[in-house]
Design goal:
The protein has 550 residues and is of the alpha+beta class. The protein is 59% helix and 8% strand. It contains 21 helices and eleven strands. The strands form three sheets. Strands 1, 2, 3, 4 and 6 form a five-stranded antiparallel β-sheet that branches. A four-stranded mixed β-sheet has the order 5-10-9-7. β2 (131-132) and β3 form a beta hairpin. α3 (54-65) runs parallel beside α5 and α12 (262-280) runs parallel beside α18 (421-435). The longest helix is centred in the last third of the chain and has 36 residues, at 482-517. The two termini are 27 Å apart. The relative contact order is 0.06.
Length: 550
């Protein structure tokens, strides 16, 4: 029996479906050591499954399980710090194109959200969608004032299904954490990160805020256009954006119809994303060709789909600039120091081994001619290095690195000889020069003066307090160390086992003496048998505890 509480018992059928799909595609081992009913974890084999690669089977399993798992796969495809490149590459193929719901259902959602009949808001509203994905579908419409818009409508029941699947994922993750480890993150931490991303994606107000911010950031940037958001017709389930007439870059590439100035657009796209990262600190986390259009008439690049974005604070941007400059200079010692001090969320077990591996990578990729450098291969090897050394990298920085890879791939679609590195170098130089502008230095200097003034003003009072506490003998020094705490926990575990072993041995010896000394079966003999029983239970408990801690 699956140990679901009353609140989760409604998910039993979905749990059974998930297990069925995963075993169908050869991932039965994920459940064999859990306490699921035996009939759910009996393997059955298919020839097709055995012929496919594990990463292909994982993608097919996610596709069959629907909305939540498709989104999970798409988010995992951006996490090169967690999965090898071949898995990320395969998961990027996940198709988020599903059959549309009926127009009556769409009409009901729009009218309920906007609190008006459809005819009072729109002059026209196409019943056939422009596109349909697992979470929403998009319809062409015309507002009463004549503005042409694209209306993104969330499909009915999506939020409830996502929440239900997240409950199951959290439960399965907690089981996975007990059975095995997945360095550098626990399964529960992975699901928690996924939950944050997915809940933002199904809240269209969040996407509207992102779109407005991008539009403001690129108001003076030539060659890039961001659609306008119509706030009065936007809610958590309905998003109304300016309709862009033009061609989708991925569709143009599929039909081999790219008849534009490819090198110019590739350069403009790279400059736009680098501006997002190093100047604005707010970037599109998935700028793949499907999310970019070429505007009809002007030929401008139009970014779409602002549900997944990344943010980088000023200090992180400065440290990223320092690290990337050190990478281009092949300064491995500085790269490792910056990684350890500013970015890594887990300690480096062997700095020397990491330095040696990193030096080998930089020697391979960082050449004298930066136009020959491939950022995608460099980033892939960098994340392989992190996984090899069990190092944890912040998720938003993983998205940043992946965005650079996607920009280079999109640029190569427009210009086969394109590489993002020369533009990255110029962007780093510009960011560095901005850091040393007189206005910036004077601003920082003013902050430092304020901090020192505050410190000097408080110094006499704090010194007086310290001397008074010292005179009264009340000063205490406290030292904490994670290594000492870990050692203390291990010693406690060992001492507990030792105590249990002594008690177990005493029970066995005492019970044996009582049973042997009893002339005939009776109360004293039963006491001896009872002692054997207690000793057996304690012995089993001790063996289980030792096996669990292996």
């Amino acid at each position: 029996m699956i140990p679901f509480g009353y609140r989760r018992i409604r998910n039993f059928r979905r749990v059974r479906e998930i297990i069925h799909v995963f075993r169908k595609y050869g991932f039965l081992y994920l459940f064999r050591r859990s306490h699921f009913p035996e009939q759910l974890t009996i393997p059955f084999f298919r020839k097709k499954t055995a012929k496919r690669t594990p990463q292909e089977n994982l993608r097919l399993a996610f596709e069959e399980l629907g909305t939540t798992f498709i989104k999970l796969g798409q988010i995992l495809s951006t996490r090169l710090d967690l999965l090898p490149e071949e898995y990320c590459r395969e998961l990027r193929k996940l198709q988020d194109q599903t059959s549309p719901v009926s127009f009556l259902e769409v009409k009901e959602v729009v009218e309920r959200e906007l609190k008006k009949p459809l005819g009072e808001i729109f002059l026209e509203f196409d019943s056939a969608p422009l596109a349909s994905a697992s979470i929403a579908q998009v319809h062409r419409a015309v507002l009463k004032d004549g503005n042409k818009v694209a209306v993104k409508v969330q499909k009915p029941g999506v939020e409830e299904k996502v929440i239900s699947d997240l409950e199951i994922l959290f439960y399965l993750a907690s089981l996975g954490d007990r059975i095995t480890s997945f360095a550098p993150l626990t399964f529960s931490e992975m699901v928690a990160e996924f939950q944050k991303s997915l809940m933002k994606e199904i809240d269209f107000l969040y996407e509207a805020v992102n779109a407005r911010r991008f539009r403001e950031n690129f108001s003076d940037f030539k060659g890039v256009y961001i659609p306008r958001v119509f706030d009065e017709y936007t809610t958590t389930r309905v998003l109304t954006l300016e309709l862009i007439e033009g061609s989708n870059l991925s569709q143009m590439a599929e039909k081999d119809e790219i008849q534009v100035d490819g090198p110019f657009l590739a350069r403009r796209g790279a400059e736009a994303v680098l501006k997002m990262i190093f100047e604005d600190g707010f970037f599109h986390a998935d700028p793949h060709p499907g999310n970019i259009m070429i505007r009809e008439g002007s030929g401008e690049l139009v970014f779409l789909d602002f549900g997944i974005v990344g943010t980088v604070d000023e200090r992180t941007r400065e440290n990223m600039v320092r690290m990337l400059i050190a990478v281009l200079r092949k300064d491995t010692e500085r790269v490792v120091d910056i990684l350890e001090e500013e970015f890594l969320l887990s300690p480096i077990k062997s700095p020397l081994a990491l330095r040696v591996d990193l030096h080998e990578i930089l020697e391979r990729y960082v050449t004298a001619n930066l136009k020959e450098m491939n950022i995608s291969s460099l980033v892939n090897d960098f994340f392989y290095l992190l996984r090899k050394h069990d190092l944890r990298f912040p998720p938003h920085l993983s998205s940043l690195m992946r965005a650079l890879m996607v920009v280079e791939g999109t640029g190569m679609m427009l210009d086969p000889h394109f590489t993002v590195v020369p533009y990255l170098e110029k962007s780093l130089e510009r960011a560095l020069s901005q850091r040393f502008r007189w206005e910036r230095i004077s601003e920082k200097f003013g902050d430092y003066l304020f901090d020192w003034q505050k410190l000097l003003a408080n110094f006499p009072d704090k010194t007086q307090e310290l001397l008074e506490e010292a005179a009264k003998g009340k000063i205490r020094f406290q030292m904490e160390s994670e290594d000492l705490r870990s050692l203390n926990r291990r010693l406690n575990r060992v001492s507990n086992r030792l105590s249990l072993s002594v008690i177990l041995g005493s029970l066995l010896i005492g019970s044996s003496l009582i049973y042997v000394s009893s002339p005939r079966p009776g109360a004293i003999g039963i006491l001896g048998i009872l002692g054997f029983g207690i000793a057996a239970v304690l012995g089993i408990f001790l063996v289980i505890e030792m096996l669990r801690s292996r």
